[in-house]
Amino acid sequence: MPARTNAMTERQRIEALLKRETPDRVPLWPFVPNGFAVLYNGLTIADAYSNPEGLYDSLKRAARDFGWVFYPVMVYAAYGAWEFGGEARMPTGRYDQAPVVTRHPLEKDEDIYNLKWPGPDSGLNPTMRRFSELSMREDLDNKPFRATISAGVAYGLACQVAGLNRILKWLIRRPDLAHELIRRLSEWSIARLEGQVEALGNERLIGTCGGPMGSNQLISSKQFEEFALPDIKEGQARLRALGVKHTYVHICGEQNDNLPFWAQVDFGDPGIIGVGHEVGLERAAEFFSNHIILGNLNPAIIQTGSPSEVYEMTKRCVETGKKLGGRYVFSPGCDLPPRAPVENVRMMCKALEDHGWY
Amino acid sequence: MATEERTEELVGELYQAVITMDDEGARRLSQAALDEGIDPYYALTQGLAKAMEKVGQLYADHLYFVPELLLCSDALYAGLDVLKPHIRTGQSDKAKQIIIGTVEGDIHDIGKNLVKIMFEAAGWVVHDLGKDVMLQRFVDEQLEIRADVIALSALMTTSMLAMPTAIEMIRARDPRVAIMVGGAPLTRDIALKYGAHGYARNAGEAVREAQEMLKRLNGSHI
């Protein structure tokens, strides 16, 4: 919790930023700390994906103990593979981080035409739904949003449904199939938005978007523009039309060449633009001059650095962010590493407390 | 028997087939090379392998991306399938050997596969253990194969924690083998901290890094 008296809460800080006001201190929003939170709470990594009550309580406790934004999200990067008819196993190994896809739904090219939309009880959907219900029940001082809703993720879903190797080859060899699969997934994704907004209400609901599959470590910016961007634009436009005012986009990995395209999307007024450590905060701020910028301490440093290194790197990040005109949120560049040493996480928070005040 | 001029023409076309992701062309040209009496080892090293070296460079320069790499490697393998059975034993006897795998807890193998392709194209004998490889398996394979290099891959901050343990286990049984690591969360600093001898930022740099690592280590304990 903030050491200063009369300090704003993390929720007030985010709400100030959304009103385009400068908060008293840079907020700390650890992106997705789910794995870290369950381990910190004495549970297992698998609980982050199978135990909604345990995850919710763990996130709440971690947010309270470390004084950061409580962002209630249950998510996994491989979402789609299991839900669309593939198979996955829970992360039970000593080095596992998330559910592991063991079979993708598409095994042959022609399977694309038989792809069924997932039912409400497929894959992780029931667990995620239960998590949303828990999250909708209470409003906390450090919880600016009640639930999340993803849109504009059809290309990422296509990677999970078809398998990465297959879809990447299609981008060149069979762009017709790639477009067809993405179109079908986009239709599903957009159709589901209305039901979700109806169930959750659009008040204090935050849109989400992004992921690593569009990164320039995998595809070119031209491929990103052709295959990923149209659905991102459409999904986000639909969210705005449904009254969801803001989106938190996670521009994951090395996406410097994609920034001009991301900048064409309506992420809300303002959107919250999270970038990985591979993208400079100042560069992100140039492309998103009217949005909140979030980032971008290298998670590997939090995992492997010494406490003093974590402190120093956080300080450096915060000092850069504070120069962005009071529209900055500190965060790791990606998930908070589940097995990050607690002392390192404390030092990250301490650096912000020492250097984050405006 | 092809003339020198015809040989260079065919090998040049083979090189182009790989770079332009033309797997059918690579297969056809490899067969043509055999039919016209061109040394298959020459066609492999000067056509296919050189092309993949160029592809690695194009990737490192951000002119090619993973889709292009995957298709170039399809062309490489199409040519290799034709040429390899005809390469006389002894021509590649001195080939270096590498054991490669994605560590336990990690099923991301696209980066590892690209590195594997680059080593194969460069003439190394690659022992690919796959993904989610139990750490003891790296040790067991090394005791059997006695490879020059072991390459460990990880894409997540949890699975990269397996690397220092794996390195320690391998070293305890074979202190002479060179170990390199790679994957998105890794950096050269982390690699050193984990006790690795080498680190490659991407597939395009991996072979060069391995060669330099071996050169460095040959001057010291290896």
Low-pLDDT residue spans of chain A? none
Radius of gyration of chain A: 19 Å
Strand content of chain B: 5-15%
The strand count of chain A comes to 8
Q: Main sheet of chain B?
A: 5 strands, parallel
Number of separate structural domains of chain B: 2
The count of helical stretches of chain A stands at 14
Main pleated-sheet profile of chain A: 6 strands, parallel
Mean pLDDT across all residues of chain B, rounded?
Answer: 93
Oligomer: heterodimer
SS summary, helix count of chain B? 9
Q: How much helicity do the residues of chain B have?
A: 55-70%
Strand order, largest beta sheet of chain B: 2-1-3-4-5
Describe the secondary-structure layout.
The complex is a heterodimer of chains A (358) and B (222).
Chain A: H1 10-18, H2 34-40, H3 47-50, H4 52-66, E1 87-89, E2 100-103, H5 125-136, E3 147-150, H6 154-162, H7 164-173, H8 175-200, E4 205-211, H9 221-241, E5 246-251, H10 259-262, E6 272-275, H11 281-287, E7 292-297, H12 299-304, H13 307-322, E8 328-332, H14 342-355
Parallel strand pairs in A: 3-4, 4-5, 5-6, 6-7, 7-8
Antiparallel strand pairs in A: 1-2
Chain B: H1 4-19, H2 23-35, H3 40-60, H4 66-83, E1 97-102, H5 110-121, E2 125-128, H6 135-145, E3 149-153, H7 162-173, E4 178-182, H8 188-193, E5 198-199, H9 203-218
Parallel strand pairs in B: 1-2, 1-3, 3-4, 4-5
